Amino acid sequence: MQKISTSSDSCHEKNRPESEGYRGVQTFIGITENHLTEVRFTQDNLLEQILSPHNLNKAYKQVVSNHGSGGIDGMATDELLPWLRLHKEDLLVAITRGKYRPNPVLRVEIPKDGGKKRQLGIPTVVDRFVQQSLSQILSPIYEREFSDTSYGFRPKRSCHDALKQAQSYITSGYKYAVDLDLEKFFDTVNHSRLIELLSKRVKDGRVVSLIHKYLQAGVQVGHKFEDSHSGVPQGALCIVSHNPPYA
Hints:
alpha+beta; two-stranded antiparallel sheet; 247 residues
């Protein structure tokens, strides 16, 4: 089952430097004498939005509805609720203190055209739950950055919408289509450059740090652990799965 590590002595983490803990985390409700007042979140406290009860409940429902295979711990989606009932508070404390350590993703291969194979990384169900919570808050921030003609991995957009747009181009008289594919793009993403780009939009350093830990969580291939110095796993719920503005 998923382990919540609050120190650097867990499996695969012995040689990793411990990052600084978070301080001054704000609560969801402010108290002023006899009244409860809602805290207005800003870009500086995105973590509080991510860990809000409403957002976590929404993330839980999405992860369970997606089903999907288990990660390295073998936990299934229908086991997530019992796990959260026992460990939710420990999980939230570990995240807010900057002590949470994501598990390595499980490496699997699926066939592609031409006999080739595509490598996917399957996070544990708990890590998918945390990633979904991240995605729900960060996606609206990046959604307005994308081109109106981008359809990949966009909310409320589908392949059918892209086909309709292509049909309108054909009707307008365009005759050529260009097909481009960046070979092994996800496998070669530079972590430092990605964190730099994230920091331009995400001003809560705790959130950037959490995403960085997911990038460095590593991969388990069979029974062997491999460090991840570059690339992002296809299959993980992270904002880099979105297409760039020019896609």
